[in-house]
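User: Before I run my own analysis I want an independent prediction to cross-check against. Here's the chain; please return only the structure tokens and, at the end, one sentence I can use as a sanity check.
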Amino acid sequence: MRTDDPPQQSGDDPLPPVREVLTAIATGLWRWDNASGTVTLDAEAARLLGLPARAQTLTEAGVRSRFHPVDWNEIDGIVQLAVAEGTLAEARLRIMDEQGRRVLRIVRSRSKPIVDPATHSYELVGTLQEVTEPPPGAAHRTPVTGDWRRSREAFLLDAGRALAEARSTEEVLRVASGLSMPGFSPDGLGVFGVEGDRLKVIGHHGHQAGDDAPFSAMPLDTDYPAAEVVRTGRAVYLSSPEEYHERYPATWPLAQPFQRQSWAFLPLTVAGRTMGAWLAAFAYPVSFTPDERSVLTTVARMLAQALSRAGVAESERELTEGLQRSMLPTLGPRIPGMSVAARYVPTGGGLQVGGDWYDMIPLPNGRIAFVIGDVQGHDVRAAGLMGQLRIALRAYASEGHRPDAVLSRATRFLSGITDGITNGSSGAPAGEGADPRFATCLYVEADPATGVLEIARAGHPEPAIRMSDGTVILRPTAGGLPLGIDPDADYPTTRIVLEAGETMLVCTDGLIETGGHDLDSGWSRIRKILEEHDTTGGTEGGDGLEGLADTLVQAVHGPSSHHTTGPLADRREDDIAVLLLRRTGRPEWRTAARRTVLTVAQAEPERIAGARRHVRELLHDWADPDQVDSAVLMVSETVTNVLVHTDGDALLVAEVMGEPGTRRLRAEVSDSSDDLPHKRHPGELASSGRGLVLMELLADAWGVDPRGDGKSIWFELHEGNERPSGEA
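Assistant: Structure tokens:
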């Protein structure tokens, strides 16, 4: 713009030059080059800034020193708004003296941004004119005054915090409808999205149900303000019905029935892409000053970010639910003679899906296989491996393989997958992104007719058995390495019998260790819940089992768990998978006896400690603690003698019968050797030979019974026997 060029003239009377006119009305010209950071002033503009009255070019910092700091910060936001909207930037500014202590005058600046489309830099060309102090009633509408600015900043902070906390599109719209803007508040709001080449009403407030029908599925080329905003990315402000009718005559009949007086349509922009438009409608005239436009623009930006975050969160939730639906099975039809309940609670990963799983597989021989496992990790990769491993296990089981063979094939399968990733077969160079994983697993083949369970375990927590009288024991079972560590690993099988009324719990370590617990304290917590819960409710115990599953999860993962944290300082969180299997039957089928069977193999002498714990749990409510210690000692001695003096395994059968207070414990240890033990009289320094002596001293009755394929050594203890422990 050349200010010394004469303007175009019409008629016979020439107009004076522009510069003379501006000088006559004490108006200065200035140009702000954002790319070079320089400001060019004519003589009048320099005088208004308190500089010598001559044309000059200054740095941005030099001009900034002449303005009040608060006003300079204000005009920067107004300029950015004008650049974004392509509108005029207008502000009222205080000019300070050289020391910055006294206000020399107040000027009004009006400028027009000129944006270079190639570089996106801009220049501002505008005017400066001295004005008088604003009247008191208009003070709150000017950028010079601090009250309105402070209330605006407080409003934006509150709005930003509320929108940041919204986690769904519905919550975002509810927050937006409750915003009360300082000095002006819309009484009608609408949020438009884009679906293909049409507008879509995402939500609205201040309108009746069905009012959005004319605006739904509106083509983007429609002469409607929201459509124009989406097309151009620029806001549209309509201060009066007349202006609306003049600019958008085609769609004015749609807006007229709502009887609004002013409208603001602002773009919802995220990462440079306009994803929709926000409508703010007012029941009274609004002039949309720069301050009001700045507030609306800021709210629109925050609203766009909140809607984008909510959309991502909803997509993640939908993905999570889809993964869970596809990867976790239903338990299928009822099993005659058995009830089953299962739960899966994701707690560890951001997508709320991890590597824990359970499954129920009908087998060709008429039996049912139950599987529970945990792939290392809580991420999408763990979920993907879990899905592959679950399918492989189901395929091996459906082929009719025994439990040990199913797990042997599964470990080779998982080893092959992780080796392929480590060696770069996934498409990445070898060594990059190597992520070998292992998985724990427990596989149970159940015969519903007899209650026989054949269990193979790969590094997984052992199962727990709740007997019909509420006694809970942790059932030692043979096991091997987790899947995926050794492709040639073996997995021995343990056979147990689930009696009528008994319940077996298998779970992942998340149920045990979540809440700062280790394995010991975690099992104590689980045992207490199992002992106290009534599983007999409902038909054939089904509803009671479902209630037990809910109680277990709630106690570990619910609010109550935060009041009973474990001994560890960190509150470890993990995914939780729970599988409950209960053998049902008529009440007369159930026995009051507690009976358990345990095999201790020659190659597993460390399981003698498990046998001692097994007996102690079986006698958890025995009246005399000394008798419990005696029983544990005799079982330990008897099982140890079998492993030391024979070549076979030891089979422990323990049974508690009778009513509390007068019960009888019978424990029997069998082996395949025909050699009968003999009572000896070891010296003080002898390391063996005391087994039968201990039985004679501690047991109420004992004996050795030959069998066709070996022998058995048994002893009995009678609860309430007055004989002191240790007397013959």
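Sanity check: The CA atoms of residues 705 and 711 lie 6 Å apart.
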